[in-house]
Amino acid sequence: MSASSRALHYVLKVGDLKKNIEFFRDKLAMRVLRHEVFDEGCEAACNGPYDNKWSKTMIGYGPEDDHFVLELTYNYSVGSYKLGNDLQYLKISLKPDLFDKVLSTTNEQVSSGESRNFSLKSPDGYRFLIETGRGQSKNDVTEVCLSCTNLNRSKQYWTELLKMTPAEEDQSSRESSSNETVLSYSSNSSNTEQQPRLRL
């Protein structure tokens, strides 16, 4: 991979596109960036093992060129999915004013410390950790946390094949331990602020 490698987006399969767009737009204050509809299944299984009409909606806090965004994959013939245990959460870091606006749309309790945070679940059950802190200058998805059954093999996959590197933990992150690792493309990029972390 080149020195400008970066993570582009994370795919979420959704069973009700309308409810999910309302959640991301009206609760999390994201905006729809583009929407595409396809009459047949994707040869690369982009929409899963379904040979039917489907769509993808890119949604986020800014243009795909310089933001990590979400892709909502919707199969018109599938009303719901069984939630797996691979994705633990997606972390979203917001500037204080937008954090307060998003918080006002919920009844969630805020945890205080070096950063203020709370969690929300999407209509399909995906968990989002919303945070803000002093000096937060950008609204973006900043971390993807995945479960794995073999940490060493998973780390080998992400570092050797996909060329991610160990990330420096900031003060708002929990301390690293032998049971987890945090990776990113930051050290390979000239624009480290825009690089989300992967926590395994």
TrEMBL record:
The residues covered by the VOC domain are: 6-133
Question: What ranges does the record list as Polar residues composition bias?
Answer: 174-200
Region Disordered: list its residue ranges: 165-200
Matching Gene3D superfamilies? 2,3-Dihydroxybiphenyl 1,2-Dioxygenase, domain 1 (3.10.180.10)
Domain of life from the UniProt record: Eukaryota
Q: Which PANTHER family match?
A: GLYOXALASE DOMAIN-CONTAINING PROTEIN 4
User: What is this protein called in UniProt?
Assistant: Glyoxalase domain-containing protein 4
- Record the organism: Aceria tosichella
Lineage per the UniProt record: Eukaryota, Metazoa, Ecdysozoa, Arthropoda, Chelicerata
